Every structure is written in structure tokens, then in C-alpha cells.
Amino acid sequence: MQKRIAVLGGVGFIGTHLCLRLIGEGHTVYCVDIRDKACSPLLRQVAQHPRFRYVRHNITSPFSIRCDEIYNLAAPSCVRYSEALPVETLKVCMLGAINALDVARSGHARLLYASSGNIYGPVYSDAAYSAAEACSTRRILAEGKRAAEALHRAYQSEFGVDARIARIYNTYGFGADPMDQRVVMKMIVAALLGKEIVVNGSGEQLRTFCWVEDLVDGLIRLMEAPRLENVRTVNLGSSHEIAIRALAEKIVEMTGSKSQIVHTEARIDDVRRRTPDLSAARRDLEWMPHTPLAEGLQRTIDYAERLLAEKQQTRISWAEMI
């Protein structure tokens, strides 16, 4: 059945892939974002599609869209800023959640909120957790996500809004901006340019990385799952662990790069291990990621190479015209 679906944060990395998947399935998609759709190289191919609607809007302000489903992926990405923006981050998480929930409530739409695996920790002692660290970009975003989760549970309990929560872990893939500061793309671009690859701390911290199209499949399965009495909440990510240092070494090997891996001081909020428990996703959604890390890395490397080559050619052509 064809549906009208709003994707808040639709110009973002995951949002772009979600928009493309939903359009491909025959739905009408409203892509809502403060960024122009041209910021996503993948959305350019559907900019004129009859089932694609772009809406420029900041969800911290009220809005109205008549739709069947809402995916709220909007968040100020912590990797886009060198300094924390704690107030703006909390506004997007909390006011954005309230405005999306009000749209879902008034229009009887089903709503999926993209939370983060970062809400699980770390836990600090008073001595170790200073006021400055409490407002660090990563921690304030996690606290905003935690508050937004509570809002979704409250709206379902008090108003009957059909809400679901996806706690998303590290995701990577093609379609990201080459200047994206997520760890995989950041390392790949540095390796392709022959620059130093920076690793925080010892590099022994364990992470998992989920291929973006696998992640999108999980989001859609969660949206389509039967409603529960309580807000259905699942972790989405990969269960394959790899140390950050080992990831950097693998990327250097796969790109044939001469880049050096350098270590900087460890971050206080950099937990030793962050791996999702996927038992609920397996049991309730019959979902598991299936793209091997090596395959996904190669596809991302190929994408980054093409993008960097295009940017270099563009600069050369422009210079020659002058």
C-alpha cells in the first residue's frame, strides 16, 4: 500500500538512504531538513521525482504534514562541530521530538524516533565528570536523546501515540560527505589523501560498524512491526567488533596508503567497548546486518575515491577557466 511518509532529517546520511528506499518502494516521501537537498549527492537523482517532496524547515518550530508515518532522524550531528552547541542540541532533541509527536498525535500517524546507543553510558564519578565535560557535544546529545525517549513513552502512555525507538550505533557507507567526521569516512579520506590518521588513546577501544543499507532495513522493519503496549525499543547496529587501531590499519591496507597512524590523548567519554545487544532486533524484527565489514569498507573507499576525484577535477577546470 502506498503511504505518505515524512523523514525528518532526510538530507542527512541515514535519512538520504531511507528516502531513496521508501521512494523505491512506491511511497510519497516528504524530506524535511534545514539543509538544502543539494547537500546530499544521492538526493540529486530523485530531486525531480514525482513522489519526492522537499520541505526546508527546522523542526524546533511547529509544523504540519499530513502523513501516515514519521521517521524522526533529525539531530545536530556531534561530528559536524568542533565545539559543543548544548542549547541548540537539546532544542533539536526535545522541541523537535515534541513537534513531531504533536504531528503524529493530531494526524494519527505512526512515529519512529532515531535515538543513539550512546545513551547507555559511560557512567562518571563526580570527580571525573566536570561541568565542561557534561556539556561536551557527545554527552549533551546523548542526554537530549534520553529525554526525547522519555517524551515518546509519555506521549504513547497519555495520548496513545504509536511510537517506536531505534537506538542506532555506528553506521557507515557511501553517500556521506567526504568531509564527514564519522570515524570510517574520516579515516578513509585521510588515507586516500596520504594524511595522518588520528586515533584517540591507545586505539584498543572496541566498536562495531553497520552498513547503512542494512541499518535502513532495520528502521523500516521497526516501523512496520506490530504495536506494543509499551513503546517498542530496539538496538540497531553491527555485532562484529573491531578495535579502532585495527580499523585504521585495515583501511591503510585496503587503500594502499602511506598514511601514518598517530595517537592523541584519550577522550574522557570514549568508552572501552560499545557493542549493541541485538537480541530484540533478531527476535521481534527478524533483523540482522548482513554486509561484511570488508565489503562495506571497499564500497565506501570506491565511493570516496570517485568523490575526491570529481572535486579535484572541478577545481582544475575552474582554475583553467580563469
Keywords:
single chain, 322 residues, alpha/beta, Rossmann fold, 7-stranded parallel β-sheet, 9 helices, 13 strands, 41% helix
Q: Explain this structure to me?
A:
Helix 1 (13-24) crosses helix 6 and helix 5 (183-192) crosses helix 9 (293-321). The protein has a domain at 4-168: NAD(P)-binding Rossmann-like Domain (Rossmann fold). 41% of the residues are buried. Helix 2 (86-107) links the parallel strand 4 (69-72) and strand 5. Mean pLDDT is 90; it is low at 124-129 and 316-322. Helix content is 41%, strand content 17%. The longest helix has 29 residues, at 293-321. By secondary structure, the protein is an alpha/beta fold. It has nine helices and 13 strands. It is globular, with a radius of gyration of 20 Å. The chain has helices at 13-24, 86-107, 131-134, 137-159, 183-192, 212-224, 244-255, 279-285, 293-321; strands spanning 4-8, 28-33, 52-56, 69-72, 110-116, 163-168, 171-172, 197-200, 206-208, 210-211, 232-236, 241-243, 261-264. The strands form four sheets. It has a seven-stranded parallel β-sheet, with helices on both faces. Strands 7-10 form a two-stranded parallel sheet.
Head-to-tail CA distance between termini: 54 Å
**Poorly predicted runs:** 124-129, 316-322
Portion in helices? 40-55%
Task: Write down the CATH class of the domain at 4-168.
Answer: Alpha Beta
Adjacency order of strands in the biggest sheet: 3-2-1-4-5-6-11
Gyration radius from CA atoms, angstroms: 20 Å
Structural class category = alpha/beta
